[in-house]
Amino acid sequence: MDDREERLAMVFDELMQDSNGGTAQRRLDDAVRQHPDLAGDLRELFATAQIADDIAMLQSSDLNYLTGGGSKSPRMSGSIAAGSAIGATVGEYELREEIGRGGMGVVYRAFQSSLQRTVALKMIPNAAFAAAQDLARLRAEALAAARLSHPNIVPVYEVGEHNGQPWFSMQFIQGTTLSQRLMSGPMKPREAVALLIPIVDAIGAAHRAGVLHRDLKPSNILIAADGTPFVTDFGLAKRVNVEEESMASGGMGSDIANLTQSGAILGTPAWMSPEQAAGQTDSIDVATDVYSLGAVLFAMLTGRPPFQAASPLDTVLMVIEQDPPNIRMLNRAVDSDLEMVVMKCLQKPQDLRYSSAGALAADLRAWLNNEPVSARTSTIVQV
Question: Looking at the whole model, is its pTM more than 0.90?
Fold first, then answer.
């Protein structure tokens, strides 16, 4: 370790000693003023450390919900306010079973008496003790999803509040998640592409409606019993002003309160884009979702995400600094054209990815029809 690296390590260690308090940003600014030659390294290390802390809190949010399959979380007992809701009534909905629980809410299988139908209902129990940001995100998720209409996006039926607890009801999908499906191994290339195209179309529709998902991953893709895929969980969604489908990051103006702060976690490590991993929230745009779609397709073809490590922090660093493994080394059944499509999605520079979800969908359909793909003539760079 040279003198500069040793000084960087010492300064960063001092900075992080008290970085969890409210003065973390001030301490970072002070350190940068005192050591201007280390400014870039200090800011990047600080953002990465903050992301790792947020990841630890949000890892439980990988919900296996809205589906009738998979493992169930333990049922609770007592009243909703005490953290249990089974048998309770929320509006005209009777809560019958907890089917998912995570850092951003609990999802129940519920019965709507007026229409005599089963729905999924998401809420935050113990809302009186919940962080204001958690309540705001649940409301934002409901608003983002409610304004979308696409056959492959789980529809929101109703949004309401019960004793100060925000909730919303959705279509109940009887089936499984893509995450559960991949536990049995990678999919055949044509099966994977055919399943993903409707999801890419759905994300394209969301973009045209001014909504970025920002947390696309296999556990947020539901597969109904008849094989129809659905995208869900818009808990990290961001509404933006949009002109047609392609949105440049510099021109995005938020039309609701921005629920994220500079350097905050946006996504899940194995599926997040390099700009998310670096905490560059101002750079997040359509290309961010395109990257995550590519990461999902990578997993569908190989049975694993592009980057995985022993810890969330190590995974974040890999997303920022390393190239993904060669897909064809992991699955010989994948041809070079499909590999190029995935690699174009996973480019670290955003301008080298597909310019829109529609462009990605077009290449996937071309590949499925044995036609040339545009990715074949694209610029692919390595770190």
Answer: no
